Amino acid sequence: MAAKKNNKTKPSAGPSPAAQEADAYLAAWLSGLSRMMVNGPEKVLPQMRDADAKGAGDE
Amino acid sequence: MPKVQAMSDGQPIIAEHRIAGPTPLPLHLALAGHALQQGVALAPLAEHYGLSESAPMQGAVLISALEQLSSMFNGIETWRRAPYRRSVERPPAIWSEGSSHLLDYGATPEAANPNGPPILVIPSMINRAYVLDLMPETSLLRSLAAAGYRPLLLDWGQPTPREQELTLEDMIAARLRPALAIARVLGGGPVPVLGYCMGGTLAAALAANAAQDVRAVITIGTPWDFEKRIWVTERIADALKPDGGLSLRYSLRGMGFALGAIPDVVFQSLFAQLDPTGTLRKFARFSEGCDTETDAKHFVAVEDWLNDGPPVPTSIAETVLVDWHLLNTTGSGLWSALGRRVDPAAISQPSLCFCSPNDRIAPPGSAEALAGLIPNAEVLRPNLGHVGMVVSRRSKASVVDPIIGFLKKL
Is A48–B49 a contact, with Cβ atoms under 8 angstroms apart? Predict the structure, then answer.
């Protein structure tokens, strides 16, 4: 992941906060996507239904 | 603990059986790429969906995704080059029929009593039986042998062209039933049967319909009620159900006609759908190195086994995928074996069922349905995955020891 690779290439600088945030987000997404296969998206992303409903209403 | 590289010798050896893996490689790559692409696209909404406290920079996410992909490729390459090859000596067969063998773990060096009480062990037909004896240090079968029992493993073997015509009922009548009879003779009476995955479904059939020969039944990760699916398999079933499974049935028959049997890649493709990010995450983690050399060997051994599935006779694949998985003949009481419908409520022997909350192949609802139907079945819920229940080092405490405790009480 980005944080570790940055560590290797720029040992003195360390991973940037943006790279750390991106890594953490991506890990959360991949893990969430995996859980979705078991429980369905509605339970894993509880806001998704609300957001979709709101989007549909806006249209 | 210091990290060590998974591949310690640096030799560019690519074992022949690993070249195309993980099977099917194009599907695993597509699933990984798709998952990462979705992650990049959703980054602006990360905060909204509760995935991050603030929206990450999309460019940084893209870089992270590409590096994750690169790590997966590195992990795959490391696995492919790993010099480890399973070299566990196969115990002698005390009986054979066609390519199936009844392997005597009482004859292994670990066995405390070569003539100990026999246990008939029934593996799945979808993957190789040696998962129950993958590595000596984590072997379920050798652990039972070391505890004084005599596990007799019915290794279904690799079906020959002639055997590709066999049905599940044929396998039960001509392989499983004689194996149980032999175990009974060796034990001087009814014996415990232990089944893993669909082997547990078959063990339940023996316990119900050959009750006089079965002293107790143990199931590990055994599906029964296929209506109790996880979300993704429910979606797949929704797509296949409208024609009563006919399209799937005829697809399998066509494949069987063309290829002789249903190749492993069909089952691996279905397993991949259960966790589309699984391959990406596990190989990316593997590329970072393992804590110990043993952990690395364990990873390689499990991957080798996963990619070493046998072709499955067409009729058996049809029974498992259409009749069981799609039409739920087991859970709805319509499945017959040994000439009678299999009714778990008729199982009066002591029973122990391992139902993992993390099992995606035999989800907890499906596995616990069997335990719920067997009167007085004991249920244990190890916090391990479907494969982890029989290969993990943690399985000693949460699976092997409880089995030994259960057997001692008989």
Answer: yes
A16, B55, B288, B394 from A24: Cα distances, Å: 12, 11, 17, 28
Any idea which residue has 């596995």 for tokens?
B367
Q: What's residue A47's pLDDT?
A: 54
Distance CA B146, CA B58 (A): 56
Task: Determine the Cα–Cα distance for residues B354 and B195; give it in Å rounded to an integer.
Answer: 10
Q: Average pLDDT of each block of 10 consecutive residues along chain B (410 residues)?
A: 44 60 94 96 88 90 97 95 91 97 98 98 97 96 98 96 94 98 98 98 98 98 97 95 96 96 95 95 96 94 94 97 97 97 98 97 97 97 97 96 98
The alpha carbons of chain B give a radius of gyration, in whole angstroms, of 22
Q: A25, B63: Cβ pair inside 8 Å?
A: no
Note the pLDDT of residue B386: 97
**Beta strand pairing call for B340-341 and B351-354:** unpaired
Task: Spell out which residues of chain A touch residue B35, defining contact as CB-CB under 8 Å.
Answer: 29-30, 33
Residue B12: exposure state from Cβ atoms within 10 A (0-12, 13-18, ≥19): exposed
Tell me whether 0.90 is exceeded by the ipTM: no
Residues A30, B48: C-beta atoms closer than 8 Å: no
DSSP B128-191: -GGGGGSSGGG-HHHHHHHTT-EEEEEE--PPPTTGGG--HHHHIIIIIHHHHHHHHHHHTS-E
For chain A of 59 residues, list the mean pLDDT of each consecutive stretch of 10: 40 79 93 92 66 47
| Chain B CB within 8 Å of residue A28 CB | yes
Measured between CA atoms, the residue of chain A closest to residue B58 is: A22
Q: Is B277 on the interface with A (CB under 8 A)?
A: yes
Q: DSSP letter at B24?
A: T
Closest alpha carbon to B327 in B220, B400, B191, B227: B227
Among B360, B358, B356, B410, smallest CA distance to B217 is for B410
Cβ pair A26:B57 closer than 8 A: no
The residue of B67, B230, B279, B386 whose CB has the most chain A CBs within 10 angstroms, and thus the best one to mutate to test that interface, is: B67
pTM of the model: 0.91
Long-range contacts of B327-333, Cβ-Cβ distance < 8 Å, separation of 24 or more: B327/B244, B327/B245, B328/B225, B328/B226, B328/B227, B330/B201, B330/B223, B330/B224, B330/B225, B330/B226, B331/B224, B331/B225, B331/B226, B331/B227, B331/B228, B331/B366, B331/B369, B332/B227
